[in-house]
Amino acid sequence: MTHSSILLPNASHLRKKGKIVEILKIQTEVLIAIHEFLYQEELLQLMPVIVSPITDPLCHPVYEASIKYLNQRLQLTKSMALHKQIAISTLDVKGIYIVSPNVRLEKDIQSDNHLLEFSQLDIELRDASTLEFMSFMEDLIIYMLAKVRDRCKKELKILGAEIKIPKKPFQVYSSWDLRSEFGSAFKSQITQREADLFWITDFEREFYDKEDETRRGHYLNYDLYYPEGYGEALSGGERDYEYEVIVRKLEERNQSLGDFVPYLELAKAAMLGPSAGGGLGIERLIRFLTKRPHIREITLFPKVPGEPIFL
Ligand code: ASN
User: Fold this and answer.
1) Considering the entire predicted model, what is its pTM?
2) Which domain covers residue 159, as residue numbers?
3) Which pLDDT tens digit goes with each residue over 17-62?
4) In whole angstroms, what is the distance from residue 86 CA to residue 71 CA?
5) In angstroms, what is the C-alpha Rg of the chain?
6) Is residue 169 part of a domain?
């Protein structure tokens, strides 16, 4: 059998060697520093969930990614948002984390910052507020950046990348203010303009992010952004956990209750509790630290939306 090489051009990074060794060394040190910080903070690490009857519905369109096993339809994990909330409600600990692989078969995204398969550092803190979670993440990021700057001097020099340590507290913008200043494309505008990491708060999105009880239509959630045009780093929020509220929000979003049966059963049995969390994209973080023009450059097996997959 003969084969044509329509896929091989997509894999030029495997041949040209690039600076992938330095990039992966930085990724290794990033993960070690993150584990160190979370260990000191006494969070427990959970193993990832890959298939489950439920997953994050997301708030943008993706192709279905599921498999049938016996009589069940199992979803490939889009994020562990629902499992994290269930875990922290079940375990009497300060917080949990997972380095979690996610599959999102993007439909119409063209960007230098998306992969169909990626990993996020998912964290959930028990009883935490928005401000407490944001402060926790700032400490984590400052700790990790200082360690990587220290431990990867040679690699950063080869890559021509400098690590600047941000000061706490990071700047916070409301999405409402940014929308009125920049219009609907505010995210790409503001990430170009800023010189340090910053937060954007209060987005209307997935049903599990907590709505502000005193201001309906406003949300206790946040995104962390990189400066210099590197875009979104983390998204997360405080969680709604009361059955009636969750059902109302699913209905408002025209989402089928049948897609969330085990989660709704736990909510109905009052087995969900207050927490806040978020997911930090690992590949995006490495791209930002190594200052690569496209996220494909920091992984050996990139899966870029709209392109055939080589490996
Ligand atoms: N990581 C997000 C969260 O924890 C969910 C997501 O990735 N869509 O809220």
Assistant:
1) 0.96
2) 14-163+235-298
3) 569 999 999 999 999 999 999 999 999 999 999 999 999 999 999 9
4) 24
5) 20
6) no
- Name the residue with the closest Cα to ligand 1, atom 1: 279
Phi-psi region of 66 (alpha: psi -120 to 50; beta: other; left: phi over 0): beta
User: Residue 14: phi, psi to the nearest 5?
Assistant: -70, -30
Contact at 8 Å (CB) between 302 and 295? yes
Residue 227 Cβ inside 6 Å of ligand 1? The answer reads: no
Structural domain contains residue 274: yes
Give the count of domains, the chain. Answer: 1
The end-to-end CA distance of the chain, in Å, is 20
CATH number, position 93: 3.30.930.10
- 236 pocket-lining for ligand 1 (C-beta < 6 Å): yes
Mutate-to-test residue for ligand 1 from 56, 97, 119, 206, highest number of ligand atoms within 8 A of CB = 56
Domain-embedded: residue 281: yes
- pLDDT of 61-72, one tens digit each? 999 999 999 999
Pairing verdict, β 117-126 and 275-281: antiparallel
Residue 6 resides in a domain? no
Residue 143 is which amino acid? Y
